[in-house]
Amino acid sequence: MEAGKQEECLCGGGPILVYACSGGSNVGQISNEVAKLLAVSGRARMSCAAGIGGHVGGIVESARAAEMSVVIDGCPLACAKKSFEHLGLKPGMHVVITDLGIKKSYNLNSVRKEEVDLVLNHVANRLPTPTKVQI
User: Fold this and answer.
1) Calpha distance 4→42 (Å, rounded)
2) Which of 26, 42, 50, 47 is nearest to 116 (CA)?
3) Cβ-count burial of 102 within 10 angstroms (0-12 exposed, 13-18 middle, 19+ buried)?
4) Which of 80, 85, 108, 109 is placed for a possible disulfide with 21 were both Cys, Cβ 3.0 to 4.6 Å?
5) Which residue from 24, 20, 75, 5 is spatially nearest to 51, judged by alpha carbons?
6) Are 102 and 115 in contact (CB under 8 A)?
7) Which helix (H) or strand (E) holds 16?
8) Rounded to an integer, what distance in angstroms lies between the CA atom of residue 104 and that of residue 97?
9) Using one digit for the tens of pLDDT, what is the confidence trace for 75-111?
10) Which residues make Cβ contacts (< 8 Å) with residue 107, sequence separation at least 6?
11) How many CA atoms lie within 13 A of 50 on its CB side?
12) What is the CA radius of gyration of the chain?
């Protein structure tokens, strides 16, 4: 890190916050990669679904204050969305990756770029200013 610059946590608040389930499957890892790419592109800020589930005060308050929360679950178990609902929060957008035709597998090395691109553009096109995200 350069002298005088302070590293910024990407779990902070923002107008659009994105939460990935980050589960132990290919679709969980796709959710994490898509959330990361949305944050890197500046379309949203990545926050912490585990912090929502763990009722971490600052993370919960950021979710409550967000203009929009995007929750990306890998499969119909919808663990990230259920964490939100446990606190009475409702995401502005909820995406289940298997609903997009991507089959769940427990092979963590089976994440394919075209699948990440499919989910990334599905989410990006539903954000308030739809654009195709290129990283």
Assistant:
1) 23
2) 26
3) buried
4) 80
5) 20
6) yes
7) strand 16-20
8) 9
9) 999 999 999 999 999 999 999 999 999 999 999 999 9
10) 26
11) 4
12) 14
The tens digit of pLDDT for each residue in 26-81 reads 999 999 999 999 999 999 999 999 999 999 999 999 999 999 999 999 999 999 99
Contact 58, 85 (CB under 8 A): no
- Looking up tokens 């600052």 gives 58
Distance (Å, rounded) from C-alpha 51 to C-alpha 45?
A: 14
Residue environment code for 71-89, b if the CB has 16+ CB neighbours within 10 A, otherwise e: bbbbbebbbbbebbeeeeb
How far apart (Å, rounded) are the C-alpha atoms in residues 76 and 14? Answer: 27
Q: Which of 14, 15, 20, 34 is nearest to 122 (CA)?
A: 34
